[in-house]
Amino acid sequence: MIYRYGDNYANIGSASGSSAGKYLVQYSTARSLPPGLHLCNMAVKIHGNFCKKGFQGVISPPGVYGTLLARFRIENNGTDVAKVHALQNRTSLTCQGGDRPGVQAPSLSPAMMNASLSSQEPTRALQLTARVAPFNPPRNISDLPRVTRMLRAAGIHNGEYQPQVPNLTALGASVKKIVAGISTLPENTMHLQNGWTQLAPQVQGDYGKNYAMRLYVAYSGYLCLRASEALYPMYTPSGNQEVKLTLGPEEAYIVTFSSKPPLATKGFWSLTAYNSQKFLINNPLGRYSVGDRTELTYPDGIPVYGNQSSHDDGSFQVLIQPADTQPPANWTSK
């Protein structure tokens, strides 16, 4: 579950060992429960009636609007797809009861997201923020007075936006540069080996009052999950900004893994290629990512994963090249 402003405040799934069953998603303007997932064995004193109705737990959102992401892991494309479809058919979202007192937010419709908004992206973003802000307080409700003052200083008040600066595009570029610098501070980043870094766990997915890091992630990887759910290594050989890789004719990259990436139980890893618009790249092989569920091999042809793998561990490589170039036969996995 992800809040309207990008905070990953609750997760149900195999990574957290969640039980199958019904979960109640309920927003309360009184914040009777702090935002997050509250299992019935923990919240029974507060929400005993719901637990008695058979719910596994209560999910308390920080505000009215949000995003629900459902992901199913596939290990075998031939047989697992049918299993996933069966799980999808058993997964549903239903409304419980009518309107609740104190919650009078309009539906998050295409009209609300688009009607009468500016064609200029910076202005459009602030206009949309003005529309949703009255129904979506800060992730940390104690920060509401300060956030209200900041929004008002930016021209957002009572659901309306009034421009306060003549050139939002230039201001946005300046802010983006400042925020990128903040992301490299020691408290916000972890240095891995060989030029790789990742966000520090405390600034990944759920940001609290750290609005600068939330903005940075919105620029670079919106809807980022908490570190307990996923890790996002970034290639930063110069020690600061992530490198944008490009491929020209007759060029290729070889990604070398010194060993199998360590995984949590039921975890997985993948290397996925995106284009400049952050969409998957069409290619004749129909291959958009490789990982521990791909038939990777060591240089001697022995599988990296699976029952036929005889190596305890070792180095292996992944070839990345333009889609219009036929890969060498010995580099093409099944």
From TrEMBL:
It comes from the Eukaryota. Coiled coil: none annotated. InterPro entries: DUF1214, DUF1214_C_sf. Gene3D superfamilies: Domain of unknown function DUF1214, C-terminal domain. Residues 246-331 form the DUF1214 domain. This is DUF1214 domain-containing protein.
